[in-house]
Amino acid sequence: MRHAIALLIALSSSLTSATVLAQENQLSALAWLTGCWSPEGGEPGSMEHWLPPAGGSMLGVGRTIKNGKTVDHEFMQIRLSASGKLVFIALPAGQSEATFTAVSVTKNEVIFENLQHDFPQRVIYRSVSGERLEARIEGMRERKLRGIDFPMKRVPCESSPKASAAAS
To answer: Could you tell me how far CA 97 lies from the centroid of its own chain?
Structure first.
């Protein structure tokens, strides 16, 4: 009886470890998103910055500069939900938090979806190369599929907007 209990505990521990490893691998598959990204044609200082996967999450922040002033910002995270699904959580300035669940994860692209959200219903990140990133939001608006593309390029993660401008 003791051997059976020990075996069950060992099997349970192995399955839990395998599940945690599989979940961490899902997040690690998005490591290509890590770093600082500047929107093409954006004003210096506008950028999206993603920290590398660690502790079961990736944390991101976005800032939009227009005429030398911050006009928008967003806090983001990608993590595993309690049910083990990969989720993107966005908290844009002046709006409520929204959670989108991954419906597709490939080597170079991730698609998150929340069909109950007003707009967008999908958030897409695609690595075009190590130096280029395409972000896209899309969904139904006024009964039509709408989308907004955000082409970005990798930039040094400098704290100074002048450094970002010099890198352009």
So the answer is: 14
pLDDT string in tens for the chain (168-residue length): 565 565 445 445 443 433 444 456 789 999 999 999 999 988 999 999 999 999 999 999 999 999 999 999 999 999 999 999 999 999 999 999 999 999 999 999 999 999 999 999 999 999 998 899 999 999 998 889 999 999 999 999 976 555 445 555
CA distance 77 to 1: 46
Which range marks the domain in which residue 35 is found? 2-167
Distance CA 41, CA 149 (A): 13
Domain with 132 in it: what CATH number?
Answer: 2.40.128.20
pTM above 0.70, yes or no: yes
CA angle 164–95–45, rounded 5-degree value: 5
